[in-house]
Amino acid sequence: MAKNPVTLPVAFGSISRRKFLQSCALAALAPVPVLHGTEKRGDADVGTHGPARRILSLNDNWLFGGKLNPAALQADFDDSGFARITLPHTVTTLSWQQWNPETWEDIWCYRRRLEIPHDFRGLRLFLHFDRVMSGATVYVNGHALPQHSGGFLPVAYEITDLVREGGNVLAVAVDSRWVNAPPSGSDKGPSSVDYMIPGGITGSVSLHAVPTVFIRDVFAKPVRVLEAGRSIEILCGIDSNKTLSLPIQVEARLSHGERIVARTSHEGYLTSSSQEIRFSLVDLGDVTLWDVDNPFLYELTVTLWIDGRPLHNHTTRIGLREAVFKQDGFFLNGRRLRLFGLNRHELYPYYGFAAPRRALRKDAEILRNDFNCNIVRCSHYPQSAAFLDACDELGLLVWEEIPGWQYIGDEDWEKLAVRDVGDMVRRDRNHPSIVIWGVRINESANNVDLYRGTREVARSLDDSRPTSGSMTPSSRKNWQQEWHQDVFAFDDYHADSSGGVGIDEPLPEVPYMLAETVGQFDYGSGRGFNQKYRRAGDIVMQARQALLHAQAHNLAASYPRCSGVIAWCAFDYASLLNSYEGVKCPGIADTFRIPKLGAAFYQSQVSPNRRPVIEPSFYWDFGPSMPLGPGEHAAIFSNCDRLEVSIDGRQQLTLHPDHRAFPHLQYPPFFVDLKSGGSSTPELRIDGFVNGKLVLSRLFSSDRLADKLWLHIDDQILSADGSDATRLAFGVVDKFGNPRLYADGDVAFSVAGPGVIVGDNPFRLTPSGGIGAVWVRTIRGGTGGVRIEVTHSCLGKNFVEIRSV
Asked: What are the phi and psi torsion angles at 641 (to 5°)?
């Protein structure tokens, strides 16, 4: 009986490197007896979701014991002194800056009691961990399960024969050291990877109960969806705890809400403990395609029948769409779509990789709805299911890739990289938003055998999507002889001779796109390679960031064959490389997800019929740091076709978008001379017109005496599960609500009701440039109103209210 995850071979002997990597690829294709396929959306309580399928969330009632005492792994250990916590959880307290890997690089202990529900008895039981950073050894009643290394993908164990009636004890030794697994392992330590990896049980834990024979997973591949004979090819994995020989039937049903779109059944014969059944769902009729502008989702339910009764089912969401990279661009459902996106790190202030589902979804909403992206790159690791679910629902395309950053380790390390490809593709191949698999270690030197192997694994598990991986000038040498992916993706950071952004022409004969550009580079200004777009940093650099992003997208669009740009990057993040106080600042939004001036370009790239936008790429200020105001040739990003600018009520200029300098942008920037503001504290007004009609007016004040405390809470209603949380943003703004340059002071929080602050309290504004955020988290079981009173050291008090239900 299969109790543990399939692991790849570890003995190499004298086999060649090529044969070793081929064996890795074959092993990664082997069926894994875990419950990847349940694809639950959220943390379900005990319940039945079809014949004999049950999921029990185990996120609550964990005990955290700090650094590991080996005795705590035994069932009879006295853990009365441990702290009670709710998952996800990070082993150390984090701020938003100055993270120190030494505070988490150790082995830590978690414990939890487990009562097996009555209706779970007689079923096979699997313990499922979504994410543990960066390695784990799980103990059930003192029995150790195989160690797992690598923290970004799920792992599951069958524990059917290890549990007992009358109560059980789970203990987890979490290894948060610099383990030899992607992305870590380099002798240079944490500074060798451009993101930090704080440890803990940073995802959900659940118990899955299934019958003796069950559906392990389902892959639904849309085929020829643009043709009348469209179909869905279904790969159904069946798992049994013993070798059986009996007839089976699988039934597939495609539905939307209560409407059944299509159904079919397939008869077969179970001949082994693990096998796959392939069949097709045809006669789909006139279905609705999934698209970035209409992310239409269907539900596919596959039911296993034995002896005429339904034994087990598996439900997943899918979208029907055709996504193809060609030599002349990217095509979605037959139409050319220029990719317009940003890279995204999942690291959060205070939480690290343990952010609540609500925060993860919010990132997708910001990217799609605020920054108008149609694609995001999950840099540089597989990201949470909650984020990918939101991308499916919002119409945000996804590049997903394996963990890594430049470094490639020894053979054991390479084996885990190949394993990660298989685990990533199996987990996420039903997400319609994912259009490309990144199967190379980000920006790594070429490794012919390794990357042939990773491509083979991805294509064997899912031949409907191309593979790629970002290349740099050094890694693309001899690419035509040694490069083996389907789409060439290049990180282009070179400067043009004019001092602006430079973009290379597409490569011949292959689909081409930019995986990164702009980032922290200051093209040609002489300010140095590692300047940061910090909100509290150089105002000239801040004002220039949006313009560089606009240049990059405009230049790339001048090459009709280029599929598009995924620029660097959406949000600031924790890093030891080229960072300031541990925060790297290439994001167009800060680490709190609050837009910086650099976001102005992305915010403006939307039809004015959807929402008119006026976003200056400058602060309106005449203080010591800007005595003459924004200066000459100040950029304003807008989707209007005319702007009228006035100062202190006097009309100054009529502006039109600069189509000559930005001919390939739908909505180019406007430029204006704002070197002098007239009075000592002038007001700026910008009116936007579309087809001669006034559609938006923006007002800006330079009078700091009228500044006020700004608060924004993302959500009004939270779940009282002890892990749900919402962002509370705050800062100093002018009287019209615009961020004030270099504002300072301390902000303190007090909470009345069943909620707690996750974040610095008090919060000092100076290092963050006058704007910041904390999160408000619920208390498990605590319901009712929550009032958060916020006090600024100079601007007084304000408050927000939410409800925990």
From this structure: -100, -5
Sheet of 231-240: strand order equals: 213-223, 231-240, 274-281
Q: How many structural domains are present in the chain?
A: 5
Report d(CA 600, CA 543) in Å as an integer: 10
Amino acid (1-letter code) at residue 544: R
User: Which residue range is the domain that position 638 belongs to?
Assistant: 631-700
Give the residue ranges of the chain where pLDDT is below 50: 1-50, 524-530
Specify whether the CB–CB gap between 709 and 772 falls below 8 A.
no
DSSP output for 709-727: EEEEES-SEE-SSSS-EEE
Going by DSSP bridges, is the β-strand pair 259-270/246-256 parallel, antiparallel, or unpaired? antiparallel
Alpha-carbon distance of 648 to 650, in angstroms, equals 6
CATH at 673: 2.60.40
Query: Quick one: how far is CA 219 from the chain centroid?
Result: 22
Q: Are 726 and 802 in contact (CB under 8 A)?
A: yes
Asked whether 346 and 315 are in contact (CB, 8 A), the reply is: no
Q: Are 280 and 171 in the same domain?
A: no
Spell 636-646 as b/e; 16+ CB within 10 A means b: bbbbbebbbbe
In a domain, 618, yes or no: no
Question: Global pTM?
Answer: 0.91
Report whether 517 contacts 552 (CB < 8 A). Answer: yes
> What is the reported pLDDT for 649?
86
Sheet strand arrangement including 642-647: 650-655, 642-647, 683-690, 693-701
CA 404, 407, 408, 413 torsion-angle sign = negative
Residue 470 phi, psi dihedral angles, 5° rounding: -75, 140
Return the pLDDT at 51.
60
Dihedral of the CA atoms 569, 573, 577, 578 (nearest 10)? 70
Residues in a beta bridge with 733: 708, 739
- 86 and 174 inside one domain: yes
